[in-house]
Here is the input.
Amino acid sequence: MALFVIVLVVAVGFSLIGAWLVLPFAGIEIVALSYAFYSVYLHSDDYESITIVGDEVIVEKKNHKDFTMMIFQRYWAQISVRDVMQDKGKSSKRGLFISSHGKEVEFGKYFINDGQRTMFARELREKLRNIY
Amino acid sequence: MSTTTVAHHEEHHDHPAGIMRWLTTTNHKDIGTMYLTFSLIMFFVGGSMILAIRAELFQPGLQLLNPEFFNQLIGVHALVMIFAALMPAATGFANWMIPLQIGAPDMALPRLNNWGFWLLPPSAILLTLPFTLALFGIGDGALATGWTFYPPLSVQGGIGVDFAIFAVHLLGISSVLGSINIIVTLFNMRAPGMTLMKMPMFAWGWLITAFLLIATIPVLAGAVTMLLTDRHFGTHFFDAAGGGDPIMFQHLFWFFGHPEVYILLLPVWGFIPQILETFSRKPMYGYKAQVYSLWAIGALAVVVWAHHFFTAGMPVPALLYFMYSTMAISLPLAVLFFCWIKTMWKGSMSFETPMLFAVGWIILFGIGGLTGLVLADVAADAQYHNSYFVVAHFHYTLFAGGIMGIMAGTYYWLPKMTGHMYSEKLGKLHFWLTAISFNLTFIPQFFLGLAGMPRRIPDYALQFAEFNMISSIAAFVLGFSQLLFVYNIVSCARGGKKATDQVWEGAKGLEWTLPSPPPYHSFTEQPTVK
Here is the structure.
């Protein structure tokens, strides 16, 4: 806020002595900086998590206002890593999927790379196997 | 119960190879490398311009360049060195090191980061293209007004001025995008436990730099736009005949131009203390005092601008205000000098190349600061203004204080970036050649200025011949010794002795906990700072 005030005071000050063209540039800059903070704020609470409790595998995904939670039966949950088409069909990449009984959810679409995806899938399968 | 949580982050995991990697990358290290490479190339472009100028000034009379072309080289040299060499170098370090130093996986706005960089090459082309166009009979070359664009000369100038105005706009947008990214990153993405007062000094230097850029770039953008409308759209902002005021342009330009000096220097003031503590093997002295001093300098930077044109004619109270406020900057700067020296005091010092550059930097930048104090004196400035004394002064601040600082930073972080050690022998040779030839280039210019030689002239009186000859020879040594720098960087990037993770025995901070070179995706697990 202090920075916005400084930018505005400077722009208004110069406008008053005739250099009014400073004002639109200051305005654009303030809007850009505000939007940058706002867009980061919108996603500041985003997360994905997998929780294993007893017989259940709970997958939670939060992306801005969208929150999804899916519960799978631990013994039936399938973990797979396969090729998927990226948004806009630009290039293919791998995706990690948890599925069971006709339900499927992709996990770690944005947050991990292919190597980490394969490693994570292996660890997850191990955890699901250790029932007792 | 077991829970696995993955923090949100932008998608740039499956990075393409080849040229597309560099065009589309959103990885902070790739973008940092592009900034640094661009900066190095433009350093040589700007340097070759000044070597042509020094060749012309080797002896009195006009030998090589016509005066118009000479003036164009002077202006474009300054713009290239400031906007295309020094600023991108600091931004390159910011991109590389800020996420590593604060424990973040990347910058907060990676795509913005990519755009910020890719605005630079077109602006460099815009700056230099008029030279080429003139060869084909289009226009009369680049801007010949000096980097300051003062009207009425800039209103009357050729198409080179228009090209430079658009170049400055692009450079300004690039700087603002970079600043927004750095501010948002530092406020939102620090590792848990890293409070603002635990941030590395380099991050502090850059935060204040970003604030200054945000505060001043709109003024520059407005000023050059008004210049453009005066040139082509019949306005009279700076035309006295039409009721405008050419002095107002000087106020607008230097409201940006003076903070720009600190924009170039604050990042260096950030990492030099880190180098000093590393090679003194003891903690940085006066962390808080340094942070507060950086803020004080940042605040004073925007209220002292008119000392750049004391001789333009101002009321005495204004002269006194700008003189005293300018001199006041020496107080927080003295605190910084004290802290830098005290950091080394009784330390177990060793003099690897980064430390040599850092210590040399303190001495040479000190000369730049002290000669600035002389220029801040209204009475003395009447004699020194527009003389070679000013040229020597600002090269001590911007070459020694800026570029030699960047060289210190390069040698300091190069093993971390490349994973290899550079040649210490060549690094030291580079330092000594640079330091000696730099002094031999610019000390004579102090004397020339004191004797009355004005700046920005291609010819001069016979009495100035000897000092100009010394200065020109030394400038060529200075220029060619930079080839050692390039050779050392390139050979280090291509191979050499493997660097350890910590690289330097006394190095502290999160960036030294990662492997050398850091993996493409640094910090897969968020570090915690105690």
In short: Residues 26 and 33 of chain A are 11 Å apart (CA to CA).
